[in-house]
Amino acid sequence: MKKLILLLLAVTLVSVAYIPPTSNTKIEQAYKSGEWFKFRIHYGMFNASYATLQVEDKKLNGKDVYHLKGKGESTGLMHLFFKVDDRYESYVDRKSGKPYRFIRDIDEGGHTKDIQIDFNHDTGKAVVNNKKKNRVNTMDIKPGTQDMISSFYHLRNIVDHNNLQNGDEFILPMFFDNENYDFKMKFLEREIVKTKFGKIKALKFRPYVQSGRVFEEEESLTVWISDDENKIPLKIEAKLAVGSLTADLDAFKGLSHSFMKIAE
Question: What is the CATH number of the domain that holds 136?
Fold first, then answer.
């Protein structure tokens, strides 16, 4: 159960297709300061937790940045049996979308971590500060590397949702804790999704994840993203090694573009 919040955030934050930016890439802001999402997560029949994502203006070391914050908390009966209180943060350049700093501060049933990662994209290095263990490591990173939070917002800016073709596959370079990895996913099709806000045009994706401890099989995740200029996650379904999980967009505010829904 301790991985439920991380699962939602990880999938939510990489749930749009990756297009490697070039020198001619025009960055279009799909989000702005004040944007806020709330997701409701069900584990089987239980309302297991809530997760939120929000954007704020900040300065970091004299630079204008967006402060991106993700938070997950258990609720109801799940909170009584397994308390979850997770905080993920990223500080990104307002123009390029590159992350300068990533924070992971979690408490999952007494299992805690407090990690800060500082990125230097000029040198291709990441300094990982494990505050709980009082240990600092310097790691190499790939060009264009994003963290778990920044990836979602950066990709929302550069993806061209109008030109996706069924079967398109994409790879995103990411760095998490002490590891570089490539996250792969496939665009399946366009669908109409029923939400609490009405029927929404959506893009359906299949992220590929390693089977074993958490997931039932490699293709156990399905994600629906709004087919508009916002490109926000609407729904996530996952088959876990034990049980299943569903996450739905529950509330939002501060969008940069109109939220497109189909008239009933």
Answer: 2.40.360
